[in-house]
Amino acid sequence: MDPLGDASEDASITRAEIERFVATHYGPARALFVVIGDADEARVRAAIADALGRAPGAMTSRTVRAFEPSVGARVEVDDQSATSVAIAVRDVPHALAIARRATAELEGGSASVFPLRGGEIVLVRGRDADEVIAAATYARALGGERPDALAEDDPRSLARRVGARWVARTSERVEGGLGVGAVIAGGRGDADADDPDARAREEATARIDALARASDAASRGEGLREETSAHGVSIRDAHGTRVAVRAAPIGRVAIAVSIAGGVRDEPARVQGRSALLARLLARCIDAHEAGAWVDASSFGASVEVAPARALDAIEHVTRCVRRMGWSPASLEDARARAIASLDGDSERLARAASVLVPGAPGMIAPSGTLASLAAIDPRSVERAWARLATRGAVSLAIVGDVDAGPIARAALLGLVSLPAPESTRPSDAVASVGGEEIVAVRSLDERVEVTIALRDPTPRASDDVGARAALDAWIAALDGPALRVAWARSGAGAEGAWIAIAVRGDEETITTLPARIERAREAARSRIDEAVQGAIRTTRESRARDAATARASARHLARGDDDHAIDADASARTARALVDGTPRYVIARPAAAEEQRGR
Length: 599
What we know:
The protein is an alpha+beta fold.
């Protein structure tokens, strides 16, 4: 589909062949002059007639011709990478719009329009095949919607429109296809083989050809599952990659991307790595405005933009997911910010996590610790991103002033080239609760503090509500004059629910804590039903507040937890399991108290 043809044959073309081709196909009857500007029409017509009056006519007459758009790739191996992608478009205005959008979105790339008799060919050029294909397919999906694509005062645009209409009179206009010509850097290959680069070329051809076909199919809606409701549109591809759009007249557009997994497979030595990935993603999207998040099931980033910037922002977000650009300096900045965000509550949560899920403490304390964040090296970050940002693991949500259907389909095109997930055995690091019932650590201040932690590893619906209810029941039962609750947290994820409560008291009270826990357990059991109802009310109020905020709404939509109904029975079962479970203890004493106990 490249209108310039194969350059390898240029040297063999003779002058006689060129003259014969011109005499056969070119002549005044096939010429169209378009003149736009401050010119005298009569003088222009006279000049053209004088110039062409003695020119020979073409040997053949114009006939109706058409080509059948196709999809495919041809790959060669050389010293430097380069890629061209050609697509057919029905008319010049749309072709020019696509070319301009592709050029704007492809860093260091370019695009040209070739008006041909069967349709306009848009040729997009760049280096990386994945990025050029993504830019071309995304631009084709939304090219005609770029407001500055066709300025009426652009003479070249007007001239091409006139020429296209003239050519179209004797042509069947077609649209579609995706032709890829790629050169991949390499050239070393197997020195002993007759064709040293054959293997590299075949593997690259198979991969790029598959990507081209998948991108073309997605641009035509093949293999996509689309669900439309009063709230918006949700689209999934065959791999489970999801884009959800909710139109709302709020004067802004919020975009959130969520990547499933991460903390489940983080051993204690790299606890907080997903938090760093979230910060790096937010920095790639918008260093100043994007916000990052990480929890037990996913990490991601969100940003708000004006409606006029929505299309460009969506393309930029999907590009960051496809290929997140980061440097050693940006990693160190993210690390410094992550460490600065840690406080006493973070340390308490990390201690609870160390006794509940010692193999993967990030399931409970995803922000990490000072020691673990400092130990994460760049190679570990790079490997983790490549393993996590894959097909089916990425969800994108858009909330605001947008046209839901077209935006959803275009956004999904930006994610088509994500790699397939690695086939690995699921981690068993979170399969069981930690074996140590009591862990002694140094206190954060000069007071004795005990963290009581419980975990229910059986996942249920509305686990977060049940965990909150259990926490409220325990606090009401424990808090009193002799034993004060200093801090408490609850949470839930794919591996069940957990609670952690830090209490303070004198040494005598702490010594009798196990007996106090059993008495408090009976009191907590009697409060479960009331606590569940209270947790349900609190959760609904929280969801209502988030629904009024575009960015929070987009984040919930990306994570897939915005519309989950609250199951009161399941919440009650989770709450009872956390009340009846076996507690783990983290006892924190100041250094002086530890020395006194040692004597």
